[in-house]
Write a structure and sequence with these properties.
This protein is of the alpha/beta class. The protein has a domain of 96 residues: Rhodanese-like domain (Oxidized Rhodanese, domain 1). 24% of the residues lie in helices and 16% in strands. It has five helices and seven strands. A five-stranded parallel beta sheet has the order 3-7-6-4-5. It has a two-stranded antiparallel sheet with strand order 1-2. The model has no long low-confidence stretch (mean pLDDT 90).
Protein backbone atom coordinates (compact mmCIF):
# COMPACT_ATOMS: atom_id res chain seq x y z
CA UNK A 1 0.00 0.00 0.00
CA UNK A 2 1.28 3.45 -0.90
CA UNK A 3 0.16 6.62 0.83
CA UNK A 4 0.40 10.02 -0.85
CA UNK A 5 0.13 12.54 2.00
CA UNK A 6 -0.07 15.56 -0.32
CA UNK A 7 -3.03 14.18 -2.22
CA UNK A 8 -4.39 12.14 0.73
CA UNK A 9 -4.63 9.06 -1.44
CA UNK A 10 -3.93 5.39 -0.89
CA UNK A 11 -2.88 3.07 -3.70
CA UNK A 12 -2.87 -0.70 -3.38
CA UNK A 13 -0.18 -2.62 -5.20
CA UNK A 14 -0.20 -6.27 -6.14
CA UNK A 15 3.13 -7.95 -5.54
CA UNK A 16 4.03 -11.47 -6.57
CA UNK A 17 5.38 -13.73 -3.89
CA UNK A 18 9.04 -14.63 -4.37
CA UNK A 19 9.36 -18.42 -4.08
CA UNK A 20 13.02 -17.97 -3.03
CA UNK A 21 12.27 -15.50 -0.19
CA UNK A 22 14.15 -16.44 3.00
CA UNK A 23 11.12 -15.51 5.14
CA UNK A 24 7.98 -16.47 3.19
CA UNK A 25 9.31 -18.60 0.31
CA UNK A 26 8.92 -22.32 -0.19
CA UNK A 27 12.00 -23.13 1.96
CA UNK A 28 12.35 -20.29 4.49
CA UNK A 29 15.65 -20.05 6.37
CA UNK A 30 14.49 -17.24 8.66
CA UNK A 31 11.83 -18.74 10.92
CA UNK A 32 12.13 -16.67 14.11
CA UNK A 33 13.14 -13.21 15.28
CA UNK A 34 16.81 -12.55 15.88
CA UNK A 35 18.30 -11.63 19.25
CA UNK A 36 18.42 -7.89 18.63
CA UNK A 37 20.76 -7.17 21.55
CA UNK A 38 23.26 -9.77 20.32
CA UNK A 39 22.90 -8.64 16.68
CA UNK A 40 23.77 -5.05 17.64
CA UNK A 41 26.64 -6.12 19.88
CA UNK A 42 24.94 -4.95 23.08
CA UNK A 43 26.08 -7.07 26.02
CA UNK A 44 23.32 -8.54 28.14
CA UNK A 45 22.75 -6.62 31.34
CA UNK A 46 23.44 -9.03 34.12
CA UNK A 47 21.54 -8.49 37.31
CA UNK A 48 24.20 -7.57 39.76
CA UNK A 49 23.55 -8.45 43.38
CA UNK A 50 24.51 -5.55 45.59
CA UNK A 51 26.73 -6.10 48.59
CA UNK A 52 24.11 -4.54 50.84
CA UNK A 53 20.59 -5.53 51.81
CA UNK A 54 17.47 -3.47 51.18
CA UNK A 55 14.70 -3.11 53.71
CA UNK A 56 11.17 -1.82 53.30
CA UNK A 57 9.79 1.21 55.08
CA UNK A 58 7.62 -1.14 57.18
CA UNK A 59 10.76 -2.91 58.37
CA UNK A 60 12.36 0.47 59.10
CA UNK A 61 9.32 1.51 61.14
CA UNK A 62 9.57 -1.66 63.23
CA UNK A 63 13.26 -0.96 63.80
CA UNK A 64 12.65 2.67 64.79
CA UNK A 65 9.89 1.66 67.20
CA UNK A 66 12.45 -0.21 69.31
CA UNK A 67 14.27 1.68 72.06
CA UNK A 68 17.70 0.51 70.96
CA UNK A 69 17.93 0.72 67.18
CA UNK A 70 20.86 0.86 64.75
CA UNK A 71 22.29 3.98 63.19
CA UNK A 72 19.82 5.40 60.65
CA UNK A 73 21.27 8.03 58.33
CA UNK A 74 19.26 10.43 56.15
CA UNK A 75 21.50 11.53 53.24
CA UNK A 76 19.15 14.11 51.75
CA UNK A 77 19.96 17.81 51.44
CA UNK A 78 19.09 20.23 54.28
CA UNK A 79 16.27 21.88 52.29
CA UNK A 80 14.65 18.44 51.93
CA UNK A 81 14.55 18.08 55.72
CA UNK A 82 12.44 21.22 55.86
CA UNK A 83 9.87 19.44 53.68
CA UNK A 84 9.76 15.99 55.29
CA UNK A 85 11.55 14.01 58.00
CA UNK A 86 11.49 10.63 59.67
CA UNK A 87 12.28 10.79 63.37
CA UNK A 88 15.17 8.88 64.91
CA UNK A 89 17.66 9.54 62.14
CA UNK A 90 21.01 11.27 61.80
CA UNK A 91 21.26 13.77 58.95
CA UNK A 92 24.43 13.84 56.84
CA UNK A 93 24.03 15.09 53.25
CA UNK A 94 25.32 12.66 50.64
CA UNK A 95 28.08 15.01 49.47
CA UNK A 96 29.47 15.20 53.04
CA UNK A 97 29.27 11.51 53.95
CA UNK A 98 32.89 10.71 53.03
CA UNK A 99 34.05 13.21 55.69
CA UNK A 100 31.96 11.54 58.43
CA UNK A 101 32.91 7.87 57.97
CA UNK A 102 35.27 7.92 60.94
CA UNK A 103 32.33 8.78 63.23
CA UNK A 104 30.82 5.31 62.79
CA UNK A 105 31.91 1.83 63.81
CA UNK A 106 32.43 -0.38 60.75
CA UNK A 107 30.73 -3.33 62.49
CA UNK A 108 27.57 -1.46 63.53
CA UNK A 109 24.33 -1.93 61.62
CA UNK A 110 23.80 1.17 59.49
CA UNK A 111 20.57 1.91 57.64
CA UNK A 112 20.60 4.64 55.02
CA UNK A 113 17.66 6.44 53.43
CA UNK A 114 16.99 9.35 51.08
CA UNK A 115 14.04 10.54 49.00
CA UNK A 116 13.55 7.42 46.86
CA UNK A 117 16.48 5.07 47.48
CA UNK A 118 19.02 6.07 44.80
CA UNK A 119 21.33 8.31 46.80
CA UNK A 120 21.18 6.05 49.80
CA UNK A 121 22.20 3.09 47.61
CA UNK A 122 25.29 5.04 46.53
CA UNK A 123 26.13 5.74 50.17
CA UNK A 124 25.69 2.04 51.00
CA UNK A 125 28.25 1.25 48.29
CA UNK A 126 30.58 3.91 49.72
CA UNK A 127 30.27 2.40 53.19
CA UNK A 128 30.99 -1.09 51.91
CA UNK A 129 34.02 0.17 49.96
CA UNK A 130 35.23 1.54 53.31
CA UNK A 131 34.84 -1.87 54.98
CA UNK A 132 31.52 -1.38 56.73
CA UNK A 133 29.99 -4.83 57.07
CA UNK A 134 26.31 -4.41 57.99
CA UNK A 135 24.76 -1.82 55.67
CA UNK A 136 21.11 -1.60 54.57
CA UNK A 137 19.32 0.66 52.11
CA UNK A 138 15.70 1.72 52.59
CA UNK A 139 13.84 0.79 49.42
CA UNK A 140 11.69 3.69 48.20
CA UNK A 141 13.02 6.18 50.75
CA UNK A 142 10.87 8.84 52.36
CA UNK A 143 8.42 8.76 49.44
CA UNK A 144 7.57 5.16 50.31
CA UNK A 145 7.39 6.15 53.99
CA UNK A 146 4.81 8.81 53.11
CA UNK A 147 2.75 6.37 51.02
CA UNK A 148 2.87 3.36 53.35
CA UNK A 149 3.52 4.59 56.89
CA UNK A 150 2.59 8.24 57.45
CA UNK A 151 0.50 10.04 54.83
CA UNK A 152 0.90 13.35 56.70
CA UNK A 153 4.51 13.50 55.53
CA UNK A 154 4.49 15.54 52.28
CA UNK A 155 5.75 14.09 49.05
CA UNK A 156 7.95 16.29 46.93
Amino acid sequence: MLFDALEMEFTELKVKKDPNCVVCGENPSVTELIDYQQFCGIPKAEEKKEDFDEITVSELKNILDKDDHPVVIDVREPFELDIAQIGGTIHIPMREMQNHLSEFNADDEIIVHCKSGGRSAKICKLLIENEFTNVKNVKGGILAWSKEIDSTIPQY
